[in-house]
Amino acid sequence: MKKVLTIAGSDSSGGAGIQADLKTFSAHGVFGMSVITAVTAQNTQGVFAVQDITRDVIAKQIEAIFEDIEVDGVKIGMVSQVQTIEVIAEQLRHYAPQTIVVDPVMVSKSGYHLLNPEAEVTLIKELLPLAMMVTPNIPEAEVMTKMSIRTLKQMEEAAKIIYQMGAKNVLLKGGHLEDDSTDILYDGREFSYFSSSRIATKNTHGTGCTLSSAITANMALGYSLNEAVSRAKEYITIAIQHSLSIGKGVGPTHHFYTLYKKAGLIE
Length: 267
Ligand SMILES: Nc1ncnc2c1ncn2[C@@H]1O[C@H](COP(=O)(O)OP(=O)(O)O)[C@@H](O)[C@H]1O
Ligand SMILES: Cc1ncc(COP(=O)(O)O)c(N)n1
What we know:
This protein is about 40% helix and about 20% strand. The chain is an alpha/beta fold and about 270 residues long. Strands 3-2-1-4-5-6 form a 6-stranded mixed sheet. The chain has a 3-stranded antiparallel sheet with strand order 7-8-9, sandwiched between helices.
């Protein structure tokens, strides 16, 4: 069985972060492991407190996994602070796993700064050069490039700038634009487009976490980069189509719709 690691924050409400990542891994039939960078007190309505995990405990979690288990893919989500990023980068340079997907999580859908703004530069400098792929959403790409992004043309321009920052591939997600949800992949030579109709729902908590985990799982399973993104896009689209109205705010996606359907557990 393929073994995949998420390095990210915990979301107590189970919709985003570590919890979304592990559910996505399970739904893909890969074995999920986790390094927790921060514990958030969070639900569908907001983030109410964050406890960062110390540098030493993050280092030890990574060491415990890599010294014992072969890792087929790594996904990085919420990294919170400068020292968190530095220790992750240091450890990953040492263990050098083949596939690293970086989701540059900055601000939650509810508006909370999950990444200290002072750490934005560190994330770009330390993590992008290690990344097989980086998956910014539009607001994150705007912070990274300092440009305003409203059109597909501007998404392409931004993807080129982010590529120059060191990631081998850039997947710029279009979930925050108004038209169809088109994600653009740039590999330094050409663009590929992954499109779906916009689904009318407020329940998109954890969509970015889910997409990057699905890409990582598919890459670990041996799919090519383009296939991995295409399958992940299909997965997130179904997960949003069948998202769950849990809680009073922005509800989570449905990770097991396809599995339940196949097993005849739902109509
Ligand atoms: N309303 C929607 N309908 C269809 N796809 C969506 C919708 N919202 C987001 N997506 C897709 O979900 C994935 C996550 O995108 P996005 O919401 O931009 O990221 P983030 O969760 O990081 O803000 C992308 O593939 C995007 O195209
Ligand atoms: C621990 C953690 N990691 C990531 C997100 C981003 O998810 P979203 O953009 O859907 O709020 C989150 N809310 N919490």
